[in-house]
Structure formats: structure tokens, C-alpha cells
């Protein structure tokens, strides 16, 4: 069971001061209860509770979460409030604010535009408003931000292709890549080849949720059949040594989300969480929150856990940050600039007492 943030040693100012990069953060998993209260009032949506603390059980999992399916159930609630231009722009801006507060210099925020159309928005309009909110967050908080557009496993090929087409309109104008998320066990990655062939024809980079609720075969399909250049989670990679070696040899980064991976039962407990094993084998590991609101976590908490439970040193934590910068969906010039700035900041950070 994940301990409360205040009980995790290593959560002092030195972790918070570390410059960071976040590559795997869901928009609808990042809502604050205070924001939900205000959005509900603006939109005339009745709520089951009247204060932030009482809303948390509807938005956040606890130690009793039994599966990814139960975890995903929280999004049915948060998505209710993300159906208007104002709400999408506000949520995106606040996601950047949260990232910046954790020391992020760059963040990729992902969302499924088809889930935000209940009040008449088109796919392109949903993407437009999220991109606008991210730009506003950049201006206000000084953290570079881009969106990743998600295709959903339970959606039809037509709906997912529509999302890809809309993402392509905003490629280089706020959209960095496309993704596949949802019920991994029920909808294997191999079912979506035509959708991601379209993404590649449109010149969109691809990351795929795989190896979280299903085995390494899904990771193999994500890379070899869907052309993923990054893998979301990838926790179960260790179950197949041959596929693990393929991922290591190809240098495919894993977007690992420690607290979320424990909550969704991708692994049963911290003693079997393979992040140290993967790191030492040479697989490019990145550290992320997944859903800071749903998981009740923060990027500083994630790094604090790695320091306390897995013995990651300051140089090793710095390497994880640089892995994320190197894996970012940025053009060569912007990536080089990000890495150079982080390298200098991390060198100074490692000197802190």
C-alpha cells in the first residue's frame, strides 16, 4: 500500500527543487476538487458533495483500488465537467500550473478529444481549447507544454481516425503526438493497426499504453505493429526476456508511473516493482504521475519514493530527468535547448546540501 505523501522520507526541499520533465499526465486525471466545485456551479451540474474534501472519494482512488478498471472508473466523474471551451482551457492551464509547481521545465498533457464532445464540441475544437489552455499555462508559469491526443480502445476505428485527423491539424501547434489508452486487457494493441498507420502517414509520433493491465505481447505489438516510439507504463515487460531485450536494444523509453502502477495492480506491491531493474539494464526509464488528481500524487512524491524505496541517488535521479528530456516529443533544436538547460540546472541541484 502506498504511504501518504507526508510519510515518504526524501520529500524535503531537495526533491522539490530538482528540475523535472513530465511525459505522462492525463488532463482528466489532474482536476482539482476545488476546480470541479467551480465548474459544476458554472455549468449547473449537481454534485454529490459540497466541499473539496467530500468530493475526493468520487475523484481519487484509495488503498483499496483493486484493478485498472476500477481506477479508470474515476474518469467518468471528472469528464462530466470537461465538456466546454472554458472548462478545457482552464483544466489545461491548471495542469501546467501543477507541473510547474513540481519543478517541471516541460510537460506533455494527454487527453482523448472524443470524450469531451457531449455539449457539442467537435474533435478539432476540443483540441483547440486544450492547446489554448496549455499556451496560457506556458505564459503564466514558464513551463513548456504540449498535448498528446489519445485514441480510446473502446472506440470505433472511425472515431479514433477522426481523433488522429484532428490531431494532425494541430501538429506543431500544440499537439506533440498520439496515444492509445483504455481497457488494455479487453482491447489488445494489435487491433488498432489501421488507426496508427494513419498517424504515421500524418507524421505524428506515437506512444502507446501497454504492459500495464496486459502482458508484454501488447508492448511488442505497440512497437512492432503500431510503431510506438515510447511505451506508457511497460511495467510487465520483465515477463518476456526476449521482448525486454528488444525494447532495451531499440532504446524505447518507458513512461513509468510508480504510484499509479501500484494502485492499478500492474504489480502487487513495491517489492516487485521493476523500475530499478529496468534502469540498471539500460532501458530508458522516465518517471511520471499519470493522474495526480486520481492517484493523489505529485511528481516530487514519485521521485521521493524512488529515492527512499529504491535507493536512487541524486546522479541517478538526474539521469531519469535527462531520459525524459531525451524522450520528449520535441524537434531537435527545442530538445537540445531543453537538455542543455536541464543539464546545467541538474549540475547545480546535485551540489545542494
Concise synopsis of the structure shown:
The chain has helices at 13-16, 33-43, 52-59, 68-72, 74-78, 85-101, 123-141, 157-169, 193-201, 216-224, 241-250, 258-263, 275-281, 292-295, 299-310, 314-327, 332-350; strands at 20-26, 104-111, 144-152, 175-181, 207-210, 230-233, 254-256, 285-287. With 353 residues, the protein is an alpha/beta fold. It has one domain: Metal-dependent hydrolases (TIM Barrel), CATH 3.20.20.
Keywords:
353 residues, alpha/beta, TIM Barrel, 4-stranded parallel beta sheet, 17 helices, globular, disordered N terminus
User: Which assembly state applies to the chains in this document?
Assistant: single chain
Q: What is the overall pLDDT average?
A: 94
Give the neighbour order of strands across the main sheet: 1-2-3-4
**Tally of discrete structural domains:** 1
Distance between the termini: 31 Å
User: How many helix segments?
Assistant: 17
General form: globular
Summarize the amount of helix as a percent range: 40-55%
CATH topology descriptor: TIM Barrel
**Main sheet makeup:** 4 strands, parallel
Superfamily (CATH H level) name: Metal-dependent hydrolases
Low-pLDDT runs: 1-10
Structural class: alpha/beta
Outline the secondary-structure elements:
Layout lengths: L12 H4 L3 E7 L6 H11 L8 H8 L8 H5 L1 H5 L6 H17 L2 E8 L11 H19 L2 E9 L4 H13 L5 E7 L11 H9 L5 E4 L5 H9 L5 E4 L7 H10 L3 E3 L1 H6 L11 H7 L3 E3 L4 H4 L3 H12 L3 H14 L4 H19 L3
Parallel strand pairs: 1-2, 2-3, 3-4, 5-6, 6-7, 7-8
Helix pairs in contact: 2-3, 6-7, 8-9, 10-11, 16-17
Amino acid at each position: 500500500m502506498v504511504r501518504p505523501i507526508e510519510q515518504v522520507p526524501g520529500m524535503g526541499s531537495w526533491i522539490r527543487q530538482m528540475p523535472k520533465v513530465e511525459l505522462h499526465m492525463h488532463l482528466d486525471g489532474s482536476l482539482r476538487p476545488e476546480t470541479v466545485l467551480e465548474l459544476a456551479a458554472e455549468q449547473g451540474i449537481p454534485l454529490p458533495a459540497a466541499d473539496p474534501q467530500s468530493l475526493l472519494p468520487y475523484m481519487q482512488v484509495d488503498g483499496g483500488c483493486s484493478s485498472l478498471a476500477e481506477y479508470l472508473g474515476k474518469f467518468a466523474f471528472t469528464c462530466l465537467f470537461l465538456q466546454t471551451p472554458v472548462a478545457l482551457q482552464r483544466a489545461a492551464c491548471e495542469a501546467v500550473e501543477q507541473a510547474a509547481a513540481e519543478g517541471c521545465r516541460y510537460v506533455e498533457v494527454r487527453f482523448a478529444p472524443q470524450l469531451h464532445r457531449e455539449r457539442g464540441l467537435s474533435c478539432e475544437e476540443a483540441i483547440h481549447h486544450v492547446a489554448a489552455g496549455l499556451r496560457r499555462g506556458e505564459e503564466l508559469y514558464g513551463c513548456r507544454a504540449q498535448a498528446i491526443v489519445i485514441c480510446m480502445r473502446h472506440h470505433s476505428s472511425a472515431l479514433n481516425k477522426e481523433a488522429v485527423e484532428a490531431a494532425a491539424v494541430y501538429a506543431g501547434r500544440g499537439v506533440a503526438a498520439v496515444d492509445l489508452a483504455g481497457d488494455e486487457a479487453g482491447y489488445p494493441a494489435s487491433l488498432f493497426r489501421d488507426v496508427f498507420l494513419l498517424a504515421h502517414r500524418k507524421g505524428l509520433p506515437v506512444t502507446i499504453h501497454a504492459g500495464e493491465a496486459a502482458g508484454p505481447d501488447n508492448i511488442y505489438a505497440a512497437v512492432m505493429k503500431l510503431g510506438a516510439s515510447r511505451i506508457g507504463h511497460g511495467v510487465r515487460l520483465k515477463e518476456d526476456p526476449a521482448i525486454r531485450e528488444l525494447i532495451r536494444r531499440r532504446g524505447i523509453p518507458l513512461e513509468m508511473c510508480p504510484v499509479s502502477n501500484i494502485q492499478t495492480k500492474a504489480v502487487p506491491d513495491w517489492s516487485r516493482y521493476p523500475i530499478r531493474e529496468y534502469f540498471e539494464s539500460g532501458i530508458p526509464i522516465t518517471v511520471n504521475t499519470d493522474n495526480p488528481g486520481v492517484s493523489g500524487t505529485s511528481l516530487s512524491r514519485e521521485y521521493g519514493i524512488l529515492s527512499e524505496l529504491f535507493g536512487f541517488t541524486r546522479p541517478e535521479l538526474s539521469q531519469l530527468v535527462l531520459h525524459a528530456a531525451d524522450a520528449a516529443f520535441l524537434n531537435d533544436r527545442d530538445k537540445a535547448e531543453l537538455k542543455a538547460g536541464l543539464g546545467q540546472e541538474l549540475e547545480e541541484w546535485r551540489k545542494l546540501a
